[in-house]
Amino acid sequence: MPTDTQWAKQALSHAQFLSEQIGPRGATTPEEKRAAEYTRDQLQQSGISDARVEAFRSPRSAWLPLTIVFSLAIWGTIACWGSFYLTRMPAIGAAIGAALCAFSAWTVYRIATYHQHPLRHWLSTATSHTTVGHIAAADAAKQHVVLVANLDTFPANKVFRTPRRTRLFYGALRLAAASLLLSVVLFVLGGLEAWDFAFVAAGLCGLVQSAGLLLTIQADQGDFSAGANDNASGVGLVMALAGQLCEAPLSQTEVWIVCAGSHTLDDGGLRWFMQRQSALSNTAWFIGCQRVGRGDQVTYVNREGWLPRTTRGEVRDLIARTATDRTGQPLRPIATLRPTPIGAALWRGYKSVCVVMNNPAGKGEADEAAARLQLPAVQQAHDYVWSLLKTIDA
Question: Helix, strand or coil for residue 300?
Fold first, then answer.
């Protein structure tokens, strides 16, 4: 059986192939499909005979739904002012504006929490691919673990080039989303003629929504990165763990492998898996692997998303017990504004956590080159995730 170092080397080899031989892997692109087929073939070679690529419908754009949402809200403001000046009947325009802003606010919430909404259905015109397979327990399976990493890569966009720019972007996005709710209140007050300046204030909210519209348009620009660290390294680690589990399966835990497509759009690959395996996902542990190719310390994401969500208590307890068993020190939690591969499971209340490597130098475009991946970082991440699996199994 290969040593743990050899498993980490295998993970690094997978990451290098994905980022160098396949290259940038935008969601719904032919390169994403090639990555899915590669991971399927590797899983089958490891001994997972049922490894397969599943196709599903997906939007082509991550930010177009929000662009449409803010556009609808702006048209609500225009309709309100137009009705006010043309008909002198503020209630009609106020009703239109309030309805459009309420729909927009509801849709933003559904988008941020990975739930179905009409725009997702209407915009799902492309095909994405996810690799799925499972490894049976050595004895009777009493529980399940789902190992998740995303195949696709983010665009190399200047909006997210530095942590500071990322914080500014999501701060402005939150403000634009909050303005939708405020607009609903203002339109109601204006329609009831309860406040003379309600429509003026709603117009100012429309300016904020215009800024949100421009930001979401900008966020969709840029070429896809090679994605060596984010997230070929995570895929490589999941593939190596799958090979290790085939040789040494857990005693009473069945493990599912999910290399998900369309994570960068709406976490479509994981949502597709949970929909297909709905009975499983109610009791399973979801462990995500992301950005594990560079860094000096294993960490876990305790809070994620621009609409924040925190991991469940029993997950934090599992993390603490596993860290204490190995090092005597608790694993450091981090927060991130950008989604992790298990975001959809987290928002559905499942037991889920994402393991990442802390990179003091920050996340830059240079880190997405395969030459900058670090074997010691992959080794640390591998050791910890393997310990998590053994702790769950025990």
Answer: strand
Pick from 203, 211, 213: nearest CA to 94: 203
Which helix (H) or strand (E) covers residue 345, if one does? helix 343-347
205-227 per-position pLDDT tens digit: 999 999 999 999 999 888 888 89
* DSSP string across 152-221: ---B--GGGSSHHHHHHHHHHHHHHHHHHHHHHHHHHHHHTT--TTHHHHHHHHHHHHHHHHHHHHHHT-
Q: Per-residue b/e over 167-188, b at no fewer than 16 CB within 10 Å?
A: eebbeebeebbebbbbbbbbbb
| Better pLDDT: 381 or 369 | 381
What are the structure tokens assigned to 379, written together?
């080794």
Structure tokens at 156: 């190399």
For the chain, give every domain's residue range. 4-57+127-156+224-393, 64-121+159-219
Q: What is the DSSP string of 214-277?
A: HHHHHHT-SPBP--IIIIIHHHHHHHHHHHHHHHS--SSEEEEEEEESSHHHH-HHHHHHHHHT
| pLDDT tens per residue across span 174-196 | 999 999 999 999 999 999 989 98
Q: What is the dihedral of CA 292, 296, 302, 306, to 10 degrees?
A: -70
DSSP-based three-state secondary structure for 312: coil
Reported as type and span, the H/E element at residue 146 is strand 143-150
Instruction: Give the CA distances from residue 120 to residues 107, 219, 258, 265, in Å, rounded to whole numbers and listed in that order.
Output: 10, 18, 22, 10
For residue range 357-377, list pLDDT tens digits in order.
988 765 555 567 889 999 999
Identify the CA nearest to 265 among candidates 100, 53, 29: 29
Q: What angle do CA 223, 224, 230 make, to 5 degrees?
A: 145
Long-range contacts of 86-92 (CB under 8 A, 24+ apart): 90/190, 90/191, 90/193, 90/199, 91/191, 91/192
Instruction: Please state the length of the chain.
Output: 394
Q: What class, spelled out in words, does domain 4-57+127-156+224-393 have in CATH?
A: alpha beta
Q: Which sign, positive or negative, has the C-alpha torsion 110, 114, 116, 118? A: positive
pLDDT of residue 67: 96
- Please state whether the predicted TM-score (pTM) of the whole model is above 0.90: yes
